[in-house]
Amino acid sequence: MNCYVCSSFRVKEVYNKLYRCLDCFTLQRENPIEYYRKVKSVYNSEYYGDNYVKRYGKDLSLDIENI
Fold first, then answer.
1. HEC string of 7-37?
2. Residue 3 has what DSSP assignment?
3. In angstroms, rounded to a whole number, what is the distance separating the alpha carbons of residues 3 and 8?
4. What are 15's strand-pairing partners?
């Protein structure tokens, strides 16, 4: 794997498929598109809509200071 920012091959895994470039210090995922698809499937519009109200007792727009 090479760095997505500077193309260096000096990339080291720092935690569970999270990598740091040893030249430009950028943190990055091995397969960012797959990772962000998973994140998007969890944090979808339902998460921030009705489910948010059920979990926290208030609408997202009223809870901005805690986010």
1. CCCCEEEEECCEEEECCCCCEEECCHHHHHH
2. -
3. 5
4. 18
